[in-house]
């Protein structure tokens, strides 16, 4: 059982072995799952994001021609192109993106564009996830903090598909807790989240994980096999949240519970945090206390 510490901005010690062996990453379908591959000669070679005044920019760059066709549309979830399975993505709104007539993998099924999942840290765009390659279509999902509006541009020299997503929603900036692997402590980074639901936004930011630059600086994410969360509520000083996906502390004293506890305890209306397993179980569902599910107990 995790125990509340004072002050609320806390550090949680964990062993080097735990850092090395117990962290989890969100799964996405591998490129080797693609059926048949693409006959296109142009390859997707880079994905970039940046925040500009009023919008976040998502860029797909190609080594040859532009995609033969492109679609970008709002979706209730990110679907894997081929199986239709949900690809876990952390956000309040989602764009499904398809790029036709190009490929994103080598003949050995290695990615030509880098990581299949990337946290961006942009003002609205939270993460970009690969959603499969099937019948000549490379698919992605963009998880956003808020549903605003977007525009699509096609540029040449080099060939690029550019999606500009408005970031002028009502927002606030809050700390989100990850793992500092260099000092064996939790560590906060600051993120923009919707002003009307900052705690929900903070957890979406946590599940997206640190950016590439933050990871290079030693910031990690201990997800304990969870892929997301649902049913977040805050009432009478108690925050309740249910994990989705998996749940396992791996026998370690540090788990996703420490990051969730630190992230939610930032809010003055939260005195205790009760975390539920994907099946709805927690150790102390009633009473003024923190609570863990059995799957997160050391």
Automatic annotation (TrEMBL):
It comes from the Bacteria. The keyword Isomerase does not apply. The keyword Iron does not apply. Residues 44-166 form the AMIN-like domain. Coiled coil: none annotated. Residues 175-276 form the GerMN domain. Residues 278-298 are annotated as: Disordered. Residues 278-292 have a biased composition (Polar residues). InterPro entries: AMIN-like, GerMN. Keywords: Signal. Residues 1-27 form the signal peptide. This is GerMN domain-containing protein. It comes from Sporichthya brevicatena.
């Amino acid at each position: 059982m995790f125990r509340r510490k004072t002050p609320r901005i806390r550090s949680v010690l964990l062993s080097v072995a735990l850092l090395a062996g117990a962290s989890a990453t969100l799964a996405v379908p591998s490129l080797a799952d693609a059926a048949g591959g693409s006959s296109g000669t142009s390859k997707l070679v880079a994905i970039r994001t940046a925040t500009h005044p009023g919008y976040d920019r998502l860029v797909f760059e190609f080594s040859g021609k532009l995609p033969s066709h492109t679609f970008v549309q709002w979706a209730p979830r990110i679907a894997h192109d081929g199986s239709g399975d949900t690809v876990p993505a952390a956000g309040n709104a989602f764009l499904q993106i398809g790029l036709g007539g190009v490929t994103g993998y080598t003949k050995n099924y290695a990615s030509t564009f880098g990581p299949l999942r990337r946290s961006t840290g942009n003002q609205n765009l939270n993460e970009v996830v690969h959603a499969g390659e099937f019948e000549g279509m490379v698919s992605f999902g963009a998880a956003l903090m808020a549903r605003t509006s977007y525009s699509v541009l096609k540029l040449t020299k080099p060939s690029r598909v550019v999606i500009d997503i408005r970031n002028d929603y009502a927002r606030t900036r809050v700390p989100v807790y990850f793992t500092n692997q260099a000092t064996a402590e939790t560590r906060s980074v600051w993120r923009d989240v919707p002003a009307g639901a900052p705690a929900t936004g903070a957890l979406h930011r946590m599940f997206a994980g640190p950016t590439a630059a933050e990871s290079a600086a030693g910031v990690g994410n201990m997800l304990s096999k969870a892929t997301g969360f649902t049913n977040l509520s805050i009432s009478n000083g108690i925050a309740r949240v249910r994990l989705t996906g998996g749940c396992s502390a791996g026998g370690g004293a540090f788990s996703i519970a420490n990051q969730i506890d630190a992230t939610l305890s930032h809010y003055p209306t939260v005195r205790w945090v009760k975390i539920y397993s994907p099946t709805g179980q927690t150790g102390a569902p009633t009473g003024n206390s923190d609570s863990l599910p059995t799957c997160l107990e050391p």
